[in-house]
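Troubleshooting: if your tokenizer reports a length mismatch, compare your output against this known-good record of 191 residues.
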Amino acid sequence: MAELVKEGKIRHIGLSEAGPETLKRAAKIHTITALQSEYSLWTRDPEDRVLATSRELGIGFVAYSPLGRGFLTGQVKRFEDFAVDDHRRNSPRFQGENFQKNLDLVKKVEDIARQKKCTPSQLALAWVLAQRDDIVPIPGTKRVKYLEENVGALEVELSADDLAQIEKILPKGAFAGQRYNENMMRLIEVA
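Known-good structure output:
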């Protein structure tokens, strides 16, 4: 990748789901511009060490699935509503008791969103944006309506008290189940 930069074929190098040691090794070879990892109220693993390492190395952080694979939108209500080929059917967080426990937590997100006069999606995105200036959430959407809703998160101001309330209700590790099945978890560096 460093050779491709030297040849002018690419401008920057970014990594996905890399852990601290991988980031450090890569940064010794060439500047790493961005790290993309899952990060949201739903998945806070990067807080263990990845966020600190990316900041130490001057690497921007791109948070994918900042809406918890759609769960934090408040739109997901029943496992049966997922299409047969929907990958979320295979996620431990969307199965069995985990599904119900996580649904109960999303109701708390909805309560806080009502207090802030915003949607659950906007609250979830505002929370990610409030974590650090160098974190850029990239929510996926297929509809303009939701794109516009997501942009509205920029107007949601979370005070220190709001963030403390969210932390109290939804501390790291609150959501039940791993984000991927065991085979997929072995392929990523989460800490």
